Amino acid sequence: MSWDVFIMRFPKGLKSSDEIPADWNPEDIGTVAAVRAAIESAIPDITWDSTGWGRGTGNGFSVQISLTGDDDELINGFTLGFRGGGDASEVAMALAAKFSARALGSGTFLEPDTADEALHEWQRYRDQVIGPHTE
Prior knowledge:
- The model has no long low-confidence stretch (mean pLDDT 92).
- The protein has helices spanning 32-42, 88-98, 115-130, and strands at 3-8, 30-31, 47-48, 53-58, 61-66, 74-75, 77-84, 102-105, 108-110.
- The protein has a domain at 23-72 and 84-97 and 109-135.
- By secondary structure, it is of the alpha+beta class.
- The longest helix has 16 residues, at 115-130.
- The strands form 2 sheets. Strands 3-4-5-7-1-8-9 form a 7-stranded antiparallel β-sheet. A two-stranded antiparallel ribbon has the order 2-6.
- The protein is globular, with a radius of gyration of 15 Å.
């Protein structure tokens, strides 16, 4: 079970995913190559397979990311599928900042001062549903 964090240029001022306007059209955040490079700088051991799936680890977490498309293709966002905890919220916030974007996790927009608590809240939910995480 992963903590999925969406990185996009969501409208400012929204508190939850329920507030996203139905007619909202996200702007591009960059090319597939630029996004991969930013992810590689935040998660140095990430490896990419031929289908566009990236897998890596950081301090206390593992992560999966799917980035399909040609290197020069523009994309409007990506999803980080974190397992574990550790520095996951810091990595998500750093990547959001890199693209002047926002991070959305568990239906709530993450902010630098609340991202850790959002991760811990998700971990408590995960542990209640499937038991404590082990790697």
